[in-house]
Amino acid sequence: MEKIKCSHGVSEEHILVNKHSPSLRKHVLIVDDEPAVRRTVRGALESSGFECAESENGASALAWLEENHVDLVIADYHMPIMSGLTLLERVTSTLNGRAPRVILLSGVIDEKHKHKAMGLGAYAIIDKPCNFRELVEKANKALDF
After folding, report:
1. Can you give the pLDDT of all 145 residues of the chain as single tens digits?
2. Range of the domain at 34
3. pTM for this one?
4. Which of 143, 69, 76, 61 is nearest to 99 (CA)?
5. At what angle do helices 84-94 and 58-65 cross, to 10 degrees?
6. CATH at 127
């Protein structure tokens, strides 16, 4: 495994590249303003074979995504600077056909906003605190893994 450099608020110590079989692993960007949530989600996904990067808000995630590719974004719905819903809107409108699938995590999202998120292309919305087995299953299904 090799660490790679990155910018735009994404923690470089959390991006690892598997040089032996990079095409076999799916890449996920975890976006949440709570470091503990990012760590636990990353742990669940990495133990299931995903490679993960992290970002602390939607704005830094969007900037990073403009220069990098992931297969899936898992984002908190409610964050400062840019919400997960706004990130979803921007990802689908600005990444011109190379937008990753998006799963939103939320402890407080009403039905109106759930419908809006699904209409914007969210693959799934998972309630917090989340069941990590469900999260890994949804991530696998989102990527047909």
Report:
1. 333 334 444 444 434 333 334 456 799 999 999 999 999 999 999 999 999 999 999 999 999 998 999 999 999 999 999 999 999 999 988 776 678 999 999 988 888 989 999 999 999 999 888 889 999 999 999 998 5
2. 2-142
3. 0.81
4. 69
5. 20
6. 3.40.50.2300
Per-residue 3-state assignment (H helix, E strand, C coil) for the chain: CEECCCCCCECHHHCEECCCCHHHCCEEEEECCCHHHHHHHHHHHHCCCCEEEEECCHHHHHHHHCCCCCCEEEEECCCCCCCHHHHHHHHHHHCCCCCCEEEEEECCCCHHHHHHHHHCCCCEEEECCCCHHHHHHHHHHHCCC
| Structural domains counted in the chain | 1
**CB hemisphere CA count around 59 (13 angstroms):** 4
